[in-house]
Amino acid sequence: MHGPASSGWLLVALCATTGAYCLLRMRSRVEEQRRAAGGEALMGFGMAAMAVPAAAFTPPPWAWPVYAAVFGAAGLRALWAARSGRHHLHHLVGAAAMVHMAVAMSGSPAHGHGASGLPVLTGVLLLYFTGYVLLTGVRLVPVASGAGAGARAGAGAGGLPAAGWGDRPELALACRLSMGIAMLAMLAAV
Which of the two residues, 49 and 154, has the higher pLDDT score? Predict the structure, then answer.
């Protein structure tokens, strides 16, 4: 993405860290979490690679069509997986956003602009990811329980979750939130 180098490197670090955590989540005992984590790891590492500042590394011209093909395939996989659960539609939108950014970065003349000079598809994706980030952020806000502070259902000793740290839904949600914020930053830079 074409922006200041310091914010670009922060974006690379955020996306790579999120991708690494998603790889660890692939070790979950829950199959659905493993599948979702694989797609999210691909997205995190792909976003990290795409966010490297142009001053540090300019990818060869053939890299952008490769990005588009990889994320196009990931989008088709998400579309196929959406038959079993609608949450895969978010992965489809994320893959479409990555394809869109790859096409924009390749300098394709097919990149249409709306009346304001902002590409229409970029604007739609910005609206989607803004809503996603806000909704996900609200879902992370703790809700007071009427049963007391330490009496959560399914909690192990000391009120900690019985599941491993890779299976904690709030960590997965925080990763999705950070990738949504990173996607917003990347789309705004297109």
Answer: 49
